[in-house]
Amino acid sequence: EQGIPMWIRHVLVPGITDNDEYLKRTREFIDSLDTVKKVEVLPYHTLGEYKWKELGIPYKLEGVDPPSEERVQNAKKILEFSKY
User: Fold this and answer.
1) Cα–Cα distance, 79 to 84 (Å, whole number)
2) Number of C-beta neighbours around residue 61 at 10 A
3) C-alpha span between 3 and 38 (Å, rounded)
4) Would you state the pLDDT for residue 2?
5) How far apart are CA 31 and CA 35, in angstroms?
6) CB 76 within 8 A of CB 41
7) Looking at residue 48, what is its pLDDT?
8) Are 84 and 36 in contact (CB under 8 A)?
9) pLDDT, averaged across the chain
10) Are 45 and 13 within 8 A, CB to CB?
11) 20-31 and 69-79 are packed helices; what angle lies between their axes, rounded to 10 degrees?
12) Where are the alpha helices (DSSP H) in the chain?
């Protein structure tokens, strides 16, 4: 509403945010926004998992592997397109 340019950064988590239907609905939502200037796909990684363990906090994504390169490229194909 304010006309402020924004970037969308989508974290790709296998089994949660990586299925094609979810990605297509996300793209439809992004398309409804007039001020999106860039869309990025950020693959989930486990680099910070140890911090949760050190703090004694259950890590809800324990056992989730990072997405394959094929899934990352698929998400980019759906979400990152020439409009941005």
Assistant:
1) 10
2) 14
3) 15
4) 81
5) 10
6) yes
7) 87
8) yes
9) 92
10) no
11) 30
12) 20-31, 49-55, 69-79
Joined together, the tokens standing for residue 52 give 């949760």
**27-56 residue pLDDT tens:** 999 999 999 999 999 999 998 888 988 999
CA distance 83 to 2: 20
What tokens does 72 get?
């990352």
CA dist list (Å): 47 to 21, 27, 54, 63, 72? 28, 28, 13, 13, 18
Domain ranges of the chain: 6-79
Neighbours of 49 (CB within 10 A): 13
| Other Cβ atoms within 10 Å of 54 Cβ, number | 8
In whole angstroms, give the CA distance from residue 21 to residue 8.
18
